[in-house]
């Protein structure tokens, strides 16, 4: 087979894939309960967070460090408020009870949420409880799962938490997107564990922490390897004010 024919077939196959693939826009963002790190602790700015989300045009958003009815954020349900500001559907997943309120993660979805799972993750070593939330949603007539988490800082805990996640999804047939602040760098054991069934958009997701001069890669967007998916337009948003993390954005083409 000559080179011209091979090139033609490759182009044809790529065209067929893109003809049937649908692009899904994904955002993952640790929002530091809406408190910009350069401001006083009393300053809460959800309007800026909402603007970032809306400007990204994301279909699915995983947010970490969300306050619900906490005094430090003026007793607001931040999950509900961000859903209202962005015009998206939402769920909140509690990690811990805190000062008569709750603290955890949130998923926002442009499309109606069809099913919800919430799991508390294991913590062999005493620490702040973490959770895994999962929604089922249909986008472009394609049913998929979207999961969001915020793993612990302690090594023993985050390894066990990663194992819990791989156990939950190892036999999953639906395309499954996993996002979150995993508190782990690419070569850490927790990422090695998750990489058994998930793949990242690139070898390096990119530095997202701290926000002013990022030097650490701990925020991730992944999809299960059984999905016929391709990544594109991977980028760290140039946002230095809203949180102590920068937002991570990726587009995923699911056939």
UniProtKB/TrEMBL annotation:
Residues 27-245 form the Endonuclease/exonuclease/phosphatase domain. Pfam families: Exo_endo_phos. Keywords: Endonuclease, Hydrolase, Nuclease. InterPro entries: Endo/exonu/phosph_ase_sf, Endo/exonuclease/phosphatase, GPI-anchor_lipid_remodeler. GO terms for cellular component: membrane. Gene3D superfamilies: Endonuclease/exonuclease/phosphatase. It comes from the Bacteria. GO terms for biological process: GPI anchor biosynthetic process. GO terms for molecular function: endonuclease activity. This is Endonuclease. The lineage of its organism: Bacteria, Pseudomonadati, Bacteroidota, Sphingobacteriia, Sphingobacteriales.
